[in-house]
Amino acid sequence: MQNGLTFATVMTGLPTGIQPMDLTSDRRQFQRINFDRQAHLTLADQSLVCEIIDLSLHGALVNLSDSKMAESSLINQTGQLTFHLGDKDHSINMTVTVSHHEQQNVGLECTDIDLDSISHLRRMIELNTGDSQLLKREFAALLNP
Q1: Of 7, 18, 36, 134, which alpha carbon lies 20 to 30 A from 84's?
Q2: pLDDT tens for each residue of 41-97
Q3: How would you classify the pairing of strands 105-113 and 46-56?
Q4: Which distant-in-sequence residues (6+ apart) come within 8 Å of 100 by Cβ?
Q5: Cβ–Cβ under 8 Å, residues 15 and 37
Q6: Are 90 and 84 in contact (CB under 8 A)?
């Protein structure tokens, strides 16, 4: 060990005790990007303020930390997720279904999205991943499930 580095750290880039994610066990088909943004989620005739944790072409993970809805079962409920991109002129609106709910985190599957919103979302993901070919494959998979 030199300069506080162990063999495991050098080989994996991770500190001892931290295991790299097994990509073969990750079932996600779409690349996710971290996206810390406030959004509005409408579920069961209630408009909730939430924080987006991450986004993909296929959905989002949000945190409902200030909501009593975080305590109830939300699985399979349909709603609307809306958030702005930096300015008030550009927003993303998607119809979502709650796919999983664990404590205050809620996984949302995008079931419908308008053309402007998907265009903005696609460009944002492309800029954040830096891999336009991967995004093209994901977009094709989204269009042809």
Answers
A1: 134
A2: 999 888 899 999 999 888 999 999 776 665 567 889 999 999 998 777 889 999 999
A3: unpaired
A4: 75, 106, 107
A5: no
A6: yes
106's tokens: 């809620």
Place of tokens 């495991």: 8
The CA–CA distances, whole Å, from 89 to 33, 92, 126, 136 equal 22, 10, 20, 26
Contact residues for 42 (Cβ-Cβ < 8 A; gap 6+)? 48, 79, 80, 82
DSSP, collapsed to helix, strand or coil, labels residue 72 as: coil
User: Quick check: helix, strand or coil at residue 76?
Assistant: coil
Would you state the structure tokens that stand for residue 135, as one six-digit string? 């995004």
Q: Element (H or E) spanning 89, and its range? A: strand 87-102
Q: Which domains does the chain have, with CATH numbers?
A: 28-143 (2.40.10.220)
